[in-house]
Design a protein that fits this description.
T-fold; 7 helices; three-stranded antiparallel beta sheet; alpha+beta; 18 strands
């Protein structure tokens, strides 16, 4: 998903740069004169903070220290407020999705080859087919242990059950988008949109006509890619897709959204799901859960009254919950 280009020259200011293994798009209403550097600084500060707290690929991050902790029973570290917030969000995501969005898949992702930033992995050839949909048959159900994660403010600590490693990539990126948009708005006093890959958050007043957002399979493809352009006056939109972050491991094509029941990459029926919600964290939880839930996703989204756009493997589009046709 990408933020669409400004409709009139000078109406909106846009800046992009790489971070968190994806692309940051910062957009805000520009007053007469030069861009406001305080907005970019505030947004960058939030992105740097989530990277230092919750990156699985930085050996010096708090999350890496937590995953590397050893000892009998629960393994705990003293944790800063941002890591505690990120872990609480991940646990809430698992609870809200009945375990479909499971943060305890870190070790499984490493086993499948996702042990470094995905730009360093062997990519799937362009145009390679997506995996055919299949009904999940689990011969040995993977044990879910997210309920055993402990987060405490007094003392400030996070504890994991033995042999569990966290991956916060999805929910932490959405959290960063929410925090960065709010920080940019507070720094500049204007409406701000922040996109981190498929996670888009807004804060403050929207421009005339709303924020224009182009929804597509891959946020890197730009506003001319096949998809749909929508507008929102507030809130957030998140897109989860199995068409991106694909790599080859042991001769097999992999992607980053795993089915917690099997520990394997999800196989259909949806290739991309976009959801609108009050904040990016909730939108991301729902879009990821929908990809995992498969055939049950439309009913689950309807139960939560969330506007959504679901794209099947063959490109068929389904919209519901007030999402524009």
């Amino acid at each position: 998903m990408t933020a669409a280009t400004a409709r009139r020259p000078g109406e909106l200011y846009t800046e992009t740069w790489p971070a968190l293994g994806t692309t940051v798009v910062l957009r805000y209403e520009r007053r007469p004169g030069p861009p406001d550097p305080a907005i970019r600084v505030a947004v960058q500060r939030e992105i740097d903070a989530i990277d230092a707290a919750a990156s699985r690929f930085r050996s010096d991050s708090e999350l890496s220290r937590l995953n590397a902790a050893r000892g009998p029973g629960p393994r705990a570290i003293e944790a800063g407020p941002l890591l505690r917030e990120a872990v609480r969000l991940a646990v809430r995501a698992a609870d809200a999705s009945d375990g479909a969005v499971d943060p305890t898949l870190g070790a499984r992702l490493v086993t499948l080859g996702y042990d470094r930033d995905w730009h360093e992995l062997t990519p799937v050839a362009a145009g390679a087919p997506l995996p055919s949909p299949t009904r999940i048959v689990v011969h040995r159900r993977r044990e879910s242990r997210w309920q055993e994660i402990e987060v405490s403010d007094t003392p400030p600590r996070v504890a994991l059950p033995d042999a569990v490693e966290l991956d916060l990539g999805s929910t932490a990126k959405a959290l960063a988008a929410d925090r960065a948009a709010r920080a940019g708005h507070e720094a500049g006093g204007t409406g701000v949109l922040v996109s981190l890959g498929g996670d888009i958050a807004t804060a403050g007043p929207a421009p005339a006509g709303g924020w224009a957002i182009h929804v597509t399979d891959d946020h890197r493809d730009g506003p001319q890619a096949p998809g749909q352009t929508i507008t929102i006056a507030s809130g957030a939109v998140a897109t989860s897709s199995i068409t991106t972050r694909r790599w080859i491991h042991d001769g097999r094509s992999m992607h980053h959204i795993l089915d917690p029941r099997s520990g394997e990459p999800v196989r259909g029926p949806w290739r991309t799901v976009s959801v609108a919600a009050a904040d990016c964290s909730d939108a991301n939880i729902a879009s990821t859960a929908a990809v995992v839930l498969g055939d049950a996703a439309p009913e689950w989204l309807a139960e939560h009254a969330l506007p959504a756009r679901l794209v099947a493997l063959d490109g068929t589009v389904r919209v519901q919950g007030g999402w524009p046709a």
